[in-house]
Amino acid sequence: MAHHGHGHEHAHHPDWSALAAEIEAEGLTLAPYVLQALDVIGERVAAPRTILDVGAGPGVFTAVLAARFPSARVIAVDGADPLLERARARGVEQGTPVDVLRADLPGGFVELPAADLIWTAQTMHHLGDQHAAVAALAGRLEPGGVLAVAEGGLPSRFLPRDIGLGRPGLADRLDALQAVGFGEMRAALDGTVDVPEDWPAILRAAGLRDVRAYTFLVDLPAPLDEDARRGVAHMLGRYLRMADRLDPDDAAVLRRLIDPEDPMSVQRRPDAFVLAARTVYIGTAP
Ligand SMILES: C[S@@+](CC[C@H](N)C(=O)[O-])C[C@H]1O[C@@H](n2cnc3c(N)ncnc32)[C@H](O)[C@@H]1O
């Protein structure tokens, strides 16, 4: 995603398996954007037989895909086995089993089966050469197949500007931190190709047609339910991985905001909400 969402670690090489709970909580909170995207995708590909979720992680969105297209073979693709196990378990629990395929990208692109729909969310930006990665995915599409790349959107908001703690405007300062961390993360990847993040141009260069960006809103007003509160706590908590680069007062406020014992925490305060805008770039193979 362009400059938001992930609190990328200093080390720049996230231990993805350790992030399972975080990715799941965030995915469950933001899943409404995927449902909206699937309405658009469904107009392009009515009955996909094979669907790949590339960079599926613990498979929250894989399960959404499987529920929306129950007669398709849905395959969660990821480099982390423990996350794929969770994706598999989620599919079974939901009554829409999914297959899993361990693949380390970009080398693993050649192992992907041909598909009628390829969904990839918040994963392309973890690959050094995003042009090559999108081209590799486009190359796995059946004629008329659809590629949907979820990247970017707007930084999410969870609280009012003044939260009665610390200096107002915390979210703006976290955005700035995130932008720096994102750039460092990209620079540290293997084979980073520094290109403008013009995703429609990248999809077109891969030979796709009818390329368009669609942005979907996730609007969960206060008061939030328990699941959404958990999602918000995770999404805020990831900034603590860069806490040494925050103003110490902001870091202290963040710790209070995610401490479930604290009455000011997002788990308990009445004013926490979710306002997220997620962009999905969609193109169709000739
Ligand atoms: C930010 S998570 C996104 C998970 C899910 N798609 C979502 O949007 O919530 C990125 C996922 O991509 C996987 N990933 C990152 N780099 C990868 C690589 N080089 N090869 C295979 N998987 C990778 C990680 O294991 C992780 O599950």
From TrEMBL:
Pfam families: Methyltransf_25. InterPro entries: Methyltransf_25, SAM-dependent_MTases_sf. Gene3D superfamilies: Vaccinia Virus protein VP39. The keyword Methyltransferase applies. SUPFAM superfamilies: S-adenosyl-L-methionine-dependent methyltransferases. It comes from the Bacteria. One of its GO terms (biological process) is methylation. Residues 51-145 form the Methyltransferase domain. One of its GO terms (molecular function) is methyltransferase activity. Keywords: Methyltransferase, Transferase. This is SAM-dependent methyltransferase. It comes from Tsukamurella pseudospumae.
